[in-house]
Fold these 2 entries.
Entry 1:
Amino acid sequence: MSSSPQSTAPPSFEAAIFSSGKHPSPATPTEKITVEAKAKSFDDTSEKTAVSTTSSAKASPSPSIHEVDTEKAERSLADDDKALAQYLVPTLPKGVKTARKKPASLWIRFRVWYNPYRMLFTFVFTLNMVGIFLACIHHFPYAEHHGAALALGNIVSAVACRNELFLRYLFWVIVKVFQKWTPLWVRIFWTGFLQHIGGIHAGSAASGVAWFIFIVVRSFQNHVAKHTPKIVLGWGVITVATCAITMFAAAPWIRANHHNVFERHHRFAGWTAVAFVWIFVCVTDAVSAEGGFTGSGRRLADAQEFWYSLFITILIAIPWFTVRKVPVEITT
């Protein structure tokens, strides 16, 4: 057992009087009695003060480091709450849809609605529609002979815009090239482009379906003159229908209100469409000028449609080879 340290006795009244170093003059008996009484009173008061100080020290110890840190954290949170209070959206009365006294102008509402996503969609889709129009009036010879290549090229673009590996490299290149030396408006432009690249995905997918419809319609129009077999026409219709289901399943209204329908059809119909595209490409390139079939693999390998189909398959397969299984702990 450790012994408690001895407390130092409080100074006596006489010691307090003589602490100045001056010796007092001799006192009379009456003064001596008075001095002794005062000294006794001083000693009692000093003892009470010492006991009170000791008990108060035991009752209220000095705050620990943890308590100080907790108090600082609470004060910091309180300051953060005060700073964020100005950003809180007030609760509106029932039936009131906006806190604005004056509604926003039509131009402002249009600018908010017509965001970079819709701008990119408009650009891609309009560009392809111009190409289809020129092909319809016979001013686009390449589309007359390689309409399937244009359709599959758009599908490659659509799939790439949703491929993680492609997006990683695209983000890396744009950040490295435009990060430091470009003006602010250039960086804002590229930031908006990267955040709304889904507009290219949607525009390319819709354009690819439109090109498929164009080549199938042309195949029906010229099937007599070109001796197109019925199997080519049939697979063309099946491919267009499957791609159209994949596209319409991703419509904003369906995604918002029937998300499971979107997930099932956009994924499974999309994978099915890839298989049908392969069949359509192989059957189309195997047709000879006389309407028969040839088994030349070299002719298939030389076709642009073959390589576009291969790129689509690779882009879709990459996530399945890069994903890994990790343990997940669910907490509530």
Entry 2:
Amino acid sequence: MNSNQEWDSKLSEDIETDEDLEIDILDIDIFNQLLAMDDDDDYDEDNPQEDEDLHKFSRDIVSQYFDQARTTFADMEKALKAKDLSKLSSLGHFLKGSSATIGVKKVMECCKHIQFLGKLQNINGKDSMDEEQALKLITQELQAGKKEYVNARDFLGFFYECSFAPAKEDSDANEDSKHDVSQATGQTDFLSEKSDAPPKASPGISTDSTPKPS
């Protein structure tokens, strides 16, 4: 068994394969392009000490993305409280691009909608609406985006066998300042909680270091 087969077997060990979940959370082609940038040619499956170096490059990129997304969502909540539609549109555009780079497509879709709504357009970038309606829809998209963030974070945390959740000290530092959207809706902070179901992975994620032809 080569290293790629070994890694795939670790992905599916003791879990139920759910290809639909994987496809729903990730754009697999984009994520595989990121994995292709990992320098794992010399990985030795018989040396457990090398596990930390497996997929290190892509893992670091993904970790930076989740930190960035968490900060951006917090900035969105502040802008929502201030009813700053221009800022919301700009933040939506920013996180949309970051999410697209990783292949986290559900978060990308929510951010694209926020970008349009911040311009008083509908989620397709057409037709106009009033500010009150736009803010109401942005609130819904922001909640949906944070839920999808947690789903993607837990799913990829399982793939990389690590946690991308915020450190405890970060949670403690933010304990006194509840998120504005959460206060308004009575919902919990999705950025620090775990999803209800355990993440599932499918062997559809490739660990082949050879880039796929575009």
